[in-house]
Prior knowledge:
The protein is of the alpha/beta class.
Amino acid sequence: MKITVLGTGTSQGVPVIACNCPVCQSADSRDNRLRCSILVEAGGTVLLVDAGPDFRQQMLRYQVTDLDAVLLTHEHADHIFGLDDIRSFNWVRKAPMDIWCERRVADNLKTIFRYAFAEIKYPGTPQMELIDVDGAPFRVQNIEVIPIRLYHHKLPVFGFRFGKFAYLTDFSRIEPDELAKLAGIEVLIICALRKKSHISHLNLAEALDLIEQIAPKKTYLTHMSHEMGFHAELMNELPDGVEPAYDGLVMKI
Length: 253
Ligand SMILES: [Zn+2]
Ligand SMILES: [Zn+2]
Ligand SMILES: [Zn+2]
């Protein structure tokens, strides 16, 4: 299984528009963070998790020429607002794109992208086939997916486990039953917004606490704000086995 990290920034990305803080001015490319997304590839199947506003740029930058499906964690703008550009893949495949998400997210997509679900569509609108994720494990071609229920303050969202790898973002709480579904994973990508606490995201201390409980061999942090500081400094502050992720990170599991 190959994982490509396409974006590691929080909702505004880093640099933040009109911010002149030192992190936003950094010359280190690892301090440039597009909105969160990953690509999961195994056995010829290619899955995208989330399609935020940087989706187009990410597909071009990492030369992604085909996708078999998109999995959505939740309906916040930084995770879905790139979906209009899915039409490029509709043309490549001559088929709608399968979008796996829970019902509430699907209902939101139908409102936000109303033109794509209209009875009479304008030519060239994106075509999305919404497939319900109800919490039970499912398979997309050659990839087995185990949804992990997480809470983004009060909003239920999904993380996903793929074999020995799990991707958990945009949450502040996980119940013990769901934590148990992560047993035996080797690599984890988990959100850590910043050092200060936040109502709907884990901060660094909370993420580290959870990492200790899950105990993967290797963990990468994602969904980071400019307030988290410089990538290079964070590398030195984190315990063994934990590193900040960066855009373009590729791993084979
Ligand atoms: Zn987010
Ligand atoms: Zn800044
Ligand atoms: Zn969110």
